[in-house]
Automatic annotation (TrEMBL):
This is GNAT family N-acetyltransferase. InterPro entries: Acyl_CoA_acyltransferase, GNAT_dom, NAT_camello-type. It comes from Paenibacillus montanisoli. Pfam families: Acetyltransf_1 (PF00583). The keyword Transmembrane helix does not apply. One of its GO terms (molecular function) is N-acetyltransferase activity. Keywords: Transferase. Gene3D superfamilies: 3.40.630.30. PANTHER family: GNAT FAMILY N-ACETYLTRANSFERASE, LD18367P. Residues 1-134 form the N-acetyltransferase domain.
Amino acid sequence: MLIRSLGEGETLPYELLLLADPERQAIDAYADRCDCMVMEENGAAVGAYMLLATRPKTAEIMNIAVREDCQGRGYGRKLIEHAVRYCKEQGYRQLEIGTGNSSLGQLGLYQKCGFRVTGVERDYFVRHYAEPIIENGIPCRDMIRLRLEW
Ligand SMILES: CC(C)(COP(=O)(O)OP(=O)(O)OC[C@H]1O[C@@H](n2cnc3c(N)ncnc32)[C@H](O)[C@@H]1OP(=O)(O)O)[C@@H](O)C(=O)NCCC(=O)NCCS
């Protein structure tokens, strides 16, 4: 298992990133400004996250995903722990992430990794996504914002 930074000429792992963000257009809107980290197992990409410097000393995980057949094995937690370590090494003081109100597992994972809720952007998904999103039987409307500080 290896987590590495994607090189400049390499293609983004869209098949993974689209699991977290259903619109390629939305991914492309932030991809240029992000570092993309890829988790590989036996040479195949099994996970990825994208990191964006948003404010002084602050980075945000813009996208995080684990291949569907590998979910629930601790890889997501490993990606977040990698992002925290990397951000500390780079001199950041806080790491942020946003997720949908209906993303119950993600909200569980992020809080288990120490993130705390800082706010809610009401109707974010209604305004920014063309198609309605339903998860766990819950309409995804609001963006829950979380932050880890050190
Ligand atoms: C979200 C995602 C990256 C997590 O990766 P994963 O490898 O499946 O997650 P892990 O196995 O590392 O960890 C899951 C953790 O969340 C916890 N969790 C999951 N569902 C939970 C719930 N409903 N309540 C509480 N905790 C929950 C698990 O107990 C586990 O915690 P642990 O590390 O203490 O055992 C992955 O499921 C994914 O790619 N989903 C699709 C894309 C996506 O939604 N990305 C995030 C967009 S905001």
